[in-house]
Design goal:
This protein has 434 residues and is mostly helical. It has a single domain, classed as MFS general substrate transporter like domains (Growth Hormone, Chain: A, Up-down Bundle). Helices cover 72% and strands 1% of the residues. The chain has a two-stranded antiparallel sheet. Helix 2 packs antiparallel against helix 13 and helix 5 packs antiparallel against helix 12. About 1% of the residues have low confidence.
């Protein structure tokens, strides 16, 4: 189970670098705070389009390299290439005079790089979840996803701390206006190297089951696994178990909340903990950007520790509710915190919600799909419950920010309310297969 998920460590480093630094990068390139959520729309939209297809295609892919592993490898290679390009968006001598739809050329380059980065990360990430569903029995799935959650958060810890670490060893954390600091650029380079090493480790160490062994392991009859039956994604969606929809509702509230966290943490900390700083070119704003990595790392530590507690709950739904409510307290407290060290405590609490979001939804869903020959397709479709709320939150983020008077801290308070709604929605989840 460890080898099965080890590559997830490297993938999550890339995802953590993206989550902690995208708003910082685009603010540095000249984006207005009300534009920041815009940059988060297209990546999940691409994921929403790609993930169901990856699931569907990989369900039918039985080759010498495996069933899911070919997609894992391709996604990782593309992610590495884009991670080298994205942080250099401000250093490519792109004309800042060219503006289209309110974005200069550097921001457009960064935006399209972000689309490819998020898409490739999702392509590399999804096979890990599918392989657990393919190769781990029902009794061990909770443990397998807990291992995956641990590696995910351990990878996050490294990705979040890279910028402040490279600043500490002497790399510059400031750059000419419109350019990304060397500390951030180097973080992406190192993250890309670790990503490909970890993915290659899983690729080489894991051997997926051939079709006959897979069918026997899952108790699938020849008729049930008839490859001539080609169910369309819409048809599968119509036949999805009730667990798919009820867990998806919880996902909606949770992922919208975390989209707000990724988008507005930098601005919140800069304003609340650095004396009202809003100048994105200032040393204080970049210092706050480094501290975002620190608080996100603290969140990852909280998530790692909480992940060890989750298996002790007798009821998965109870664990889900408690985790989300703890995270909601963390978000709400950021409205009143003006010390960067105390802010770490708030993000530590938020880690409980993150741990539950990584492990419990897939445990609940794959248990409901046990023996289903379209496991990958359903997991791909289920990824839409991650992408859609991010799209909605990103599309409406600028408007909501105006409604709350431009206070980015209030956006994090709203994230807390969303987690409470998610906790209430957990009651609707039916853990029985339908």
């Amino acid at each position: 189970m460890w080898n099965l998920s080890f590559g997830f460590f490297g993938v999550q480093i890339a995802y953590a670098l993206q989550s902690a630094n995208i708003s910082r990068i685009f603010a540095t390139l000249g984006a207005d705070p009300h534009q920041l959520s815009f940059f988060w729309i297209l990546p999940p939209l691409m994921g929403m389009l790609v993930q169901p297809l990856i699931g569907k295609w990989s369900d039918r892919t039985w080759c010498r390299m495996g069933r899911r592993k070919p997609y894992l490898l391709v996604g990782a290679i593309v992610a590495v290439l884009v991670m080298v390009l994205l942080p250099n968006a401000g250093s490519l001598n792109l004309s800042t005079a060219y503006v289209f739809l309110g974005l200069n050329a550097a921001m457009w380059f960064g935006l399209f790089s972000l689309i490819f980065l998020d898409t490739s990360i999702n392509v590399a990430m999804q096979p890990f979840k599918m392989m657990v569903g393919d190769m781990v029995n029902e009794e061990q799935k909770a443990k397998a996803y807990s291992i995956q959650s641990f590696l995910c958060n351990a990878g996050s810890l490294f990705g979040y701390l890279f910028p402040i670490f490279f600043t500490w060893i002497g790399l510059a954390n400031e750059a000419p206006e419109g350019q990304v600091p060397p500390s951030v650029i180097t973080s992406f380079y190192v993250g890309a190297a670790i990503l490909i090493i970890c993915v290659l480790y899983t690729f080489m160490k894991v051997k997926e089951m051939p079709p006959a062994e897979y069918a026997e392991f899952h108790g699938i009859t020849a008729s049930a696994d008839d490859s001539s039956k080609k169910e369309g994604l819409l048809s599968l969606l119509a036949k999805a178990p009730r667990t798919f929809w009820t867990v998806g509702l919880v996902q909606f509230f949770c992922w919208a909340a975390f989209l707000y966290m990724w988008t507005y943490s930098n601005g919140t900390l800069a304003f609340n903990c650095w004396g009202g700083v809003t100048d994105t070119a200032s040393a204080d704003y970049q210092a706050a950007g480094n501290w975002v990595g620190v608080v996100f790392a603290v969140q990852a530590v909280g998530s790692i520790l909480w992940a060890t507690i989750l298996p002790k709950f007798r009821n998965l739904k109870t664990a889900y509710v408690v985790s989300l409510l703890i995270g909601a307290v963390g978000f709400a407290s950021l409205l009143f915190i003006h010390d960067k060290f105390i802010a770490c405590g708030a993000y530590f609490l938020i880690g409980a919600a993150w741990a539950a979001m990584l492990a419990l939804p897939f445990t609940l869903l794959t248990n409901a799909l046990e023996g289903n020959p379209y496991m990958g397709s359903y997991l791909g479709l289920f990824n839409c419950t991650i992408c859609l709320p991010q799209i909605v939150a990103a599309a409406t983020g600028g408007l909501v920010l105006k409604l709350v008077g431009g206070s980015q801290a209030t956006m994090l308070g709203l994230a807390g309310i969303l987690l409470v709604l998610g906790a209430l929605a957990v009651r609707l989840i039916d853990t029985k297969q339908k």
